């Protein structure tokens, strides 16, 4: 720790802090364009100039360390001034230079109202220009379907270049030419090849890079901001949903150090148009092979008529990937009251189950815990597409000081180098038996991390694979006091919540696959669109989009998406998070729990709550850990690993394959989105090109 | 700086493979750096690739270098576009970089440029026979032999229109040419007669250590002479541990009215007073009356002198000079003589 005096206030900060960080610790605000907490320091915008006592010139506070300051003649702490007239004058000079080439197009610029340059020009700008030459003109660049460019506005902070190279790990962007001719572009203006590319538009302090799909759609001050949580993957990124009236206009990341830092994937951000396209806005009932619009009463009556004479053993329920805990709980209670044990939330067929303990299906290490791992083994997962922000964390860990990282599964580009051990269970068995050299690195590590993905678990021998991984984790000491390195990576936002609730087949119950293949006569499908349901059964689909599940349905109950209801989601680490309502569901669509409550009344098994609060009160009484919003209830890792390791089983020979074939089209909302379709087509093209 | 761009697609070769020679060179360069730092060799490799490709860098060559160094292409591209000595468009077999900076122009580079324009044409333009192209560049550092051009890797100096025309003729005909000075002088010696540095003692080693001898002699005088006596009578002042040498902030302004007053002199420089009293020189800048009224600035932060409202103070920061104010006029102000009005300053140092 080092002492430093900022504007007369003495603060004690770590010596490796920059002056900018020290000033912020002392409560002084420093304007900046190029500096960003999560990127390397460039020091090229010069806006953060401060005065250091003893230095002949103002210094860039973002690039000057506290430990680089000289103490006073009698050993006083170094002194900096952030508000002196010199500093103000220096910053005004910098601002004037920045504005020399910046076009005066704020009225037609999408960044207007959320622009760092605009804001800071209010404090440091002047109202007239002394520059009488022509402004610089730069041709706009094509950077793909998500980022719109207006390069005249670029102030060369290079945040976008640093983001793509450092965080996204896809060095696509660069600054070509030099001096006044400098231009930010991708090589030959190819589209950016990252699943995190839209973050560059968030990072851009001016309007040079803006979001293409939402260009000219809104002004930021028109929007209502709602804090929420993302459901596109099991990471549960913190997001802010901005809506205007009934319509969601955009989704932005929220800072959450424990989960997504401040990035979100393109899918999280740009499915906005999918929220309004192909929506189910009224109930439908299938008559003579065709779906016809119906009223809620008709739909409920059709269900009740069908359910009445059916044996509870021939009724089943499948839960999809986007369901919130509330409706899953309501469904569970309803099915229990009907005496149905055929209930499953694992439509991909994964073998995870609460029977082996909560520690057997959580990402126990936690996402921020990845930064402490000193050896990483990934089994049957491609974290880059299954959980991009987990991959970002692994990459962040790799950038700190490369730990040994190995992968068993698909040999994919993860943006960091790793040892490719093999493709399937045989390699895993070799490793577990100690016949592979990487075992030494895992054993030698103090905090080894083993990530097992759904590609290894949603297969016939999944349980044996899970057991082998648990044995390996036990052998290398991945689970010990203060460290749990046994982590399961999920792909579905609803999954951990469902497993917490115990939405797995009860006694003699059928699992999702058997139910879909004709094991039941009446199937209640709560938003499961990734499973093929065989003809025969009477299917009640409660969901949001006219996707695969709705096409196969006999009765459709229109429901609300995650932006249209208040719902609890538990992410892959077991972190309980709350999504809030930002808009209302279209037409006659209703919140899911309310639909189930109404249906239960018609079926004669009225659920014991009349409001969301009553539901939650009951839920929290049964599952206290779900009441602890934003926190992770750690699970007993020892017991889980012991239980799993004891299962054993025979490993198959099939190589592991990621369950996600197309990153951009993993759920009904994304499949409805035109932007995601465009991204998907482009990604396929890039893949083909790379294969050539 | 000339506008640079990538060569159009039709000029780009279909493929580019590093030749064995270039590969060997590349491996040698890469070996200079620690493992994993091979990207440090990028400039050397681009240079060699440019040599191999005939004086310019096709896109495929940039990609080949990127592949060789395991770098993203955009990073190599950044380097190739940053440095102007990487040509991104084809050049002639003899690529002439013509120096157009002041010393060369003073010595007649304008005529050389006319020759280039007449014989080759515009800049960045290759003659139909593919032999020549030229580019005006900034100073190449051979000013004493101005005017000069660089043709490929060599300098050709002391050019006149005649010898430059002959040089171009010889190059076109494939005749051997003389590098360096075209008028026969040795490097950059005086071209008429060598008058300096002719003392043989400079070269026989006899002056080695001469400075020490001189230094010792001076020290002896100081110890014994009257200077020592004078020094002894001066009271020893305690000195600050860190003298303020070189710190502009701490030194006093050289000449201010306050300083003069402190030293017991007239606070106002008599020269200034005289000048101020002279009505003809009171305002030296152009008149403030303008044909058109300036647009009214909207805040007091404007850089344009603004009409002030009643009661509002005029911003008088030293950085915002009022338009039309002349720079300091009096010649005698900045040479330290102002506080000694009796001293005649001899600017040209011609003591009579």
TrEMBL record, chain A:
Family (UniProt): Belongs to the complex I 75 kDa subunit family.
InterPro entries assigned: 2Fe-2S_ferredoxin-like_sf, 2Fe-2S_ferredoxin-type, Mopterin_OxRdtase, Mopterin_OxRdtase_4Fe-4S_dom, NADH_UbQ_OxRdtase_75kDa_su_CS, NADH_UbQ_OxRdtase_ferredoxin, NADH_UbQ_OxRdtase_Gsu, NADH_UbQ_OxRdtase_Gsu_4Fe4S-bd
Origin organism lineage: Bacteria, Pseudomonadati, Pseudomonadota, Alphaproteobacteria, Hyphomicrobiales
One family name in Pfam for this protein: Fer4_NDSU1
Cofactor binding note: Binds 1 [2Fe-2S] cluster per subunit.
Organism annotation: Microvirga arsenatis
4Fe-4S His(Cys)3-ligated-type domain segment(s): 86-125
Enzyme type, top EC level: translocase
Protein name: NADH-quinone oxidoreductase
EC assignment: 7.1.1.-
Every 2Fe-2S ferredoxin-type domain range: 1-86
Keyword Iron-sulfur: yes
Assigned keywords, A-Z: 2Fe-2S, 4Fe-4S, Iron, Iron-sulfur, Metal-binding, NAD, Oxidoreductase, Quinone, Translocase
Annotated catalysed reactions: a quinone + NADH + 5 H(+)(in) = a quinol + NAD(+) + 4 H(+)(out)
UniProtKB/TrEMBL annotation, chain B:
Ranges of compositional bias, category Basic and acidic residues: 257-277
CDD domains, per the entry: TRX_Fd_NuoE
EC number(s) from the headed UniProt entry: 1.6.5.11
Record keywords, A-Z: 2Fe-2S, Iron, Iron-sulfur, Metal-binding, Oxidoreductase
Cofactor(s) needed by this chain: [2Fe-2S] cluster
Matches recorded under Pfam families: 2Fe-2S_thioredx
GO molecular function: oxidoreductase activity
Region (Disordered): 226-352
Family: Belongs to the complex I 24 kDa subunit family.
Protein name, as recorded: NADH-quinone oxidoreductase subunit NuoE
Gene coding for it: nuoE
């Amino acid at each position: 720790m080092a002492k430093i005096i900022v504007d007369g206030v003495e603060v004690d900060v770590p010596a490796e802090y920059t002056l900018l960080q020290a000033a912020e610790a002392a409560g002084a605000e420093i304007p900046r364009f190029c500096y960003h907490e999560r990127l390397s320091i460039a020091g090229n915008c010069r806006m953060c100039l401060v005065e250091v006592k003893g230095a002949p010139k103002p210094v860039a506070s973002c690039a000057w360390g506290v430990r680089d300051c000289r103490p006073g003649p009698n050993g006083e702490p170094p002194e900096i001034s952030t508000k002196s007239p010199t500093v103000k004058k220096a910053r005004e000079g910098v601002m004037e230079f920045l504005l020399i080439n910046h076009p005066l197009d704020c009225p037609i610029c999408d960044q207007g109202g959320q622009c760092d340059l605009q804001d800071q020009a209010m404090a440091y700008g002047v109202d007239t220009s002394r520059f009488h030459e022509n402004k610089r003109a730069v041709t706009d660049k094509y950077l793909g379907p998500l980022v719109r460019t207006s390069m005249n506005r670029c102030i060369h902070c290079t945040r976008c270049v640093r983001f793509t190279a450092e965080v996204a790990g896809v060095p696509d962007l660069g600054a070509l030419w030099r001096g006044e001719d400098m231009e930010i572009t991708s090589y030959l203006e190819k589209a950016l090849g990252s699943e995190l590319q839209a973050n560059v538009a968030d990072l851009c302090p001016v309007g040079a890079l803006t979001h293409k799909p939402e260009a000219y759609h809104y002004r930021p001050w028109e929007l209502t901001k709602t804090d929420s949580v993302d459901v596109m993957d099991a990471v549960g990124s913190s997001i802010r949903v901005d809506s205007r009236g009934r319509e969601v206009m955009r989704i932005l990341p929220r800072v959450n150090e424990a989960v997504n830092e401040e990035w979100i994937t393109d899918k999280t951000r740009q499915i906005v148009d999918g929220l309004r396209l192909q929506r189910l806005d009224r109930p439908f009932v299938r008559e003579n092979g065709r779906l016809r619009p119906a009223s809620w009463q008709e739909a409920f009556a059709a269900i009740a008529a069908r359910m009445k004479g059916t044996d509870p053993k021939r009724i089943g329920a499948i839960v999809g990937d986007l369901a919130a805990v509330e409706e899953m709980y309501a469904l569970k209670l309803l099915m229990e009251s009907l005496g149905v044990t055929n209930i499953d939330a694992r439509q991909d067929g994964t073998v995870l189950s609460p029977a082996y303990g909560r520690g057997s299906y959580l990402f126990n290490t936690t996402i921020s815990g990845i930064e402490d791992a000193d050896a990483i083994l990934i089994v049957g997962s491609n974290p880059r597409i299954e959980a991009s922000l987990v991959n970002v964390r692994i990459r962040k860990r790799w950038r700190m000081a490369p730990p040994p990282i190995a992968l068993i599964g698909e040999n994919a580009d993860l943006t960091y180098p790793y040892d490719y051990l093999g493709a399937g269970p045989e390699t895993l068995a070799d490793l577990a038996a100690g016949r592979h050299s990487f075992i030494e690195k895992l054993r030698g590590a103090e905090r080894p991390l083993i990530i097992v993905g759904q590609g290894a678990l949603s297969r016939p021998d999944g349980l044996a694979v899970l057991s082998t991984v648990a044995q390996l984790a036990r052998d290398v000491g991945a689970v010990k006091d203060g460290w749990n390195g046994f982590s399961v990576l999920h792909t579905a936002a609803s999954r951990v919540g469902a497993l917490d609730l115990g939405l797995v087949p009860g006694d003699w119950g059928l699992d999702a696959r058997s139910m879909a293949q004709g094991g039941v006569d009446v199937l209640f499908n709560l938003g499961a669109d990734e499973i093929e349901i065989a003809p025969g059964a009477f299917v009640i689909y409660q969901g949001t989009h006219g996707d695969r599940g709705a096409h196969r349905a006999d009765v459709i109950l229109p429901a609300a998406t995650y932006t249209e209801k208040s719902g609890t989601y538990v992410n892959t680490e077991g972190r309980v998070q709350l999504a809030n309502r930002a808009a209302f569901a279209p037409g006659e669509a209703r919140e899911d729990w309310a639909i189930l409550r109404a249906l239960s009344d018609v079926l004669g098994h009225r659920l014991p709550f009349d409001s969301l609060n009553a539901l939650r009160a009951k839920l929290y009484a049964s599952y206290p850990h779900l009441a602890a919003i934003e926190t992770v209830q750690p699970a007993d890792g020892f017991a889980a690993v012991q239980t799993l390791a004891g299962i054993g089983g025979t490993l198959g020979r099939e190589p592991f394959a990621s369950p996600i074939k197309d990153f951009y089209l993993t759920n009904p909302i994304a499949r409805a989105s035109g932007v995601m379709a465009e991204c998907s087509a482009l990604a396929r093209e890039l893949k083909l090109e790379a294969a050539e | 700086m000339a506008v640079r761009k990538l060569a159009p697609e039709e000029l780009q070769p279909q493929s580019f493979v590093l030749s064995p020679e270039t590969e060997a060179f590349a491996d040698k360069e890469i070996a200079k750096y620690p493992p994993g730092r091979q990207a440090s060799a990028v400039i050397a490799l681009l240079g060699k690739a440019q040599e191999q490709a005939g004086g310019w860098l096709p896109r495929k060559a940039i990609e080949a270098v990127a592949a060789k160094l395991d770098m993203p292409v955009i990073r190599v591209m950044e380097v190739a576009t940053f440095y102007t000595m990487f040509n991104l468009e084809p050049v002639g077999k003899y690529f002439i970089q013509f120096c157009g900076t002041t010393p060369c122009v003073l010595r007649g580079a304008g005529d050389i440029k006319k020759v280039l324009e007449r014989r080759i044409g515009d800049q960045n333009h290759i003659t139909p026979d593919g032999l020549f192209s030229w580019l005006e560049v900034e100073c190449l550092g051979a000013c004493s032999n101005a005017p000069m051009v660089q043709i490929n890797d060599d300098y050709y100096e002391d050019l006149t229109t005649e010898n430059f025309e002959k040089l171009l003729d010889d190059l076109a005909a494939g005749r051997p040419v003389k590098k360096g000075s075209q008028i026969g002088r040795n490097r950059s010696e005086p071209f008429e007669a060598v008058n300096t540095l002719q003392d043989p003692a400079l070269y026989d080693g006899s002056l080695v250590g001469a400075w020490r001898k001189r230094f010792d002699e001076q020290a002896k005088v100081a110890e014994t002479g009257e200077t020592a006596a004078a020094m002894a009578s001066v009271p020893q002042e305690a000195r600050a541990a860190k003298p303020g040498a070189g710190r502009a902030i701490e030194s006093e302004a050289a000449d201010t009215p306050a300083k003069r007053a402190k030293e017991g002199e007239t606070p106002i420089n008599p020269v200034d007073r005289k000048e101020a009293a002279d009505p003809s020189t009171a305002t030296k800048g152009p008149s403030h009356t303008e044909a058109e009224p300036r647009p009214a600035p909207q805040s007091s932060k404007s850089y344009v002198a603004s009409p002030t409202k009643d009661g509002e103070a005029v911003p008088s920061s030293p950085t915002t000079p009022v338009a039309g104010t002349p720079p300091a006029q009096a010649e005698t102000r900045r040479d330290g003589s102002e506080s000694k009005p009796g001293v005649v300053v001899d600017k040209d140092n011609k003591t009579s």
